[in-house]
Design a protein that fits this description.
By secondary structure, the protein is an alpha/beta fold. It folds into two domains: about 260 residues, nicotinate phosphoribosyltransferase (Alpha-Beta Barrel), CATH 3.20.140.10; about 180 residues, TIM Barrel, CATH 3.20.20.70. The chain contains 16 helices and 19 strands. The strands form four sheets. It has a seven-stranded antiparallel β-sheet. Strands 7-6-11-10-9-8 form a six-stranded parallel β-sheet. It has a four-stranded mixed β-sheet with strand order 16-14-15-19. The protein is elongated. About 45% of the residues are buried. The model has no long low-confidence stretch (mean pLDDT about 95).
């Protein structure tokens, strides 16, 4: 891989212990009993979370970096040894640990639906087991944020959206991943400076009320900021009186024009954003300042943005923070990671309400003659693809080596935009489709295999 994306505040080689303890205890038992045959696991989402009609894949680049660099350091081995219940045989195995598996995945930015494998891991059982927690942590979170962002971007109807969430995100690592995933979902940039450095995402910022309050008058504050940042002056105008703030911004904009400069914009963060944005736009336009942009912020989400635009609000940019960075209306994604094949053949889980699809699978996306999405088909790997379809899963690792060059974030963002353009309009509405109406089909062969295994395992358990 050409890039080493940040995984958090721990470097790649020290991420091995970012796993649930039971992954390691199971792995130790496999090691003691010689059960390290090749297996296949699927990572998928069982059900759509509330208020969602689709999901957007994100986090794959971090997964590949993790798998390629996964090592158990001497410090990690010493810690596990100190817990007192791992075998020396297993600890010795971990000293030599390398991920040697083959991985297929849906590329970042692509739309996917419940039941579809997002990542498919084929590897020796111990390797495939140990990586479960990190894969779920990474794919679940970033996919959740990318999906939320795409909804906000759809609601904005062509207006730019900026990630303003770092101060409200659930930790420093989350702030970086939100910036990355929100860019995939359609944000034009982020306020997180570190994300700009690490990922090359454009960074945006204005000023806080404390800056305005640090000067004797608002006009003095605006003048100072415009003089210090003539190429990036965006003024916060609602510290005292929003309309007077707009007038002060107009004065500064005219002074900047006299110096051969231009005020970039103004930000409104409180009050009746519909009425105020219209009045502010009028004040600016009457001064011949049609080029000055209006940015709205203040606890926004896709529902509020939809209402603001529907009621005639005038806006060029939206800054969205808490609601985007926490996906507040649907703050978790229930991805799971399940065994689907091993040395005994296709495997199935029969827990009530949690039956899995067995075997190594591919997902095919069927488009109509105009390139619009019609349906997805989940099929066994060896099946012929349906007519007019293309496979979603691509090989990204083979025998522990990355065989996929992750595209740039801008290319991933473009993939997401293209995928959204192929999705019928009904799925983009704020009211979600009922999950049972989303056309994701299981192929007849896979359906028959599932039914056969259900019958086989039911009879086997009955006899024992």
């Amino acid at each position: 891989m050409s890039r080493s994306p940040i995984l958090g505040w721990v470097d790649g080689e020290n991420m091995a212990l970012l796993t649930d303890l039971y992954e390691l205890t199971m792995a130790d038992s496999y090691c003691r009993r010689g059960k390290n045959q090749v297996t296949t696991f699927d990572l998928f989402i069982r059900h759509l979370p509330p208020y969602r009609s689709y999901l957007i894949a994100a986090g794959l680049e971090q997964v590949l970096y993790y798998l390629a660099h996964l090592r158990f350091t001497p410090e990690a081995i010493a810690y596990l040894d100190g817990l007192g219940f791992f075998s020396q045989e297993f600890l010795e195995y971990l000293r030599r640990f390398r991920f040697t598996g083959t991985v297929w995945a849906i590329p970042e930015g692509e739309i996917f639906f419940p039941g579809e494998p997002v990542v498919r891991v084929t590897a020796p059982r111990i390797e495939a087991q140990i990586v479960e927690t990190f894969l779920l942590n990474t794919i679940n979170f970033q996919s959740m944020i990318a999906t939320k962002t795409s909804r906000v971007v759809q609601a904005a109807k062509g207006r730019a959206v900026v990630d303003f969430s770092p101060r409200r995100d659930h930790g420093a690592d989350a702030a970086l991943k939100v910036a990355r995933a929100s860019f995939i979902g359609g944000c034009v940039g982020t306020s997180c400076t570190l994300a700009g450095q690490v990922f090359g995402i454009p960074v945006y910022g204005t000023m806080a009320h404390s800056y305005v309050m640090s000067f004797e008058t608002e006009l003095e504050a605006f003048r100072a900021f415009a003089q210090d940042f003539p190429n990036n002056a965006l003024l916060l105008i609602d510290t005292y009186d929003t309309l007077q703030g707009a007038r002060h911004a107009a004065v500064v904009a005219k002074e900047m024009e006299a110096r051969g400069q231009r005020l970039r914009g103004v930000r409104l963060d409180s009050g009746d954003l519909v009425a105020l944005s219209r009045q502010v736009r009028k004040i600016l336009d009457e001064e011949g300042l049609g080029y000055v942009k209006i940015l709205l912020s203040g606890d926004l989400n896709e529902y509020k943005i939809h209402t603001i635009l529907g009621q005639g609000g005038v806006v060029d940019f939206f800054g969205v923070g808490t609601e985007l960075g926490t996906s507040r209306d649907s703050p978790s994604l229930g991805g799971v990671y399940k065994l689907v094949e091993d040395d005994m053949g296709p495997r199935i889980k029969l827990s009530e309400g949690k039956v899995t699809l067995p075997g190594r699978k591919q997902v095919y996306r069927v488009l109509d003659g105009k390139g619009m999405w019609v349906k997805d088909v989940i099929a066994l790997e060896e099946e012929a693809p349906p007519a007019g379809s293309y496979p979603l899963l691509v090989k990204v690792m083979e025998r522990g080596e990355v065989v996929y060059e992750p595209p740039s974030l801008r290319d991933v963002q473009a993939r997401c935009a293209q995928a959204m353009s192929r999705l019928p309009q009904g799925y983009k509405e704020l009211k979600p489709y009922p999950e049972e109406e989303i056309p994701v089909e299981v192929s007849p062969y896979l359906d028959a295999l599932t039914a056969k295994l259900v019958e086989t395992y039911t009879e086997l358990e009955r006899r024992t």
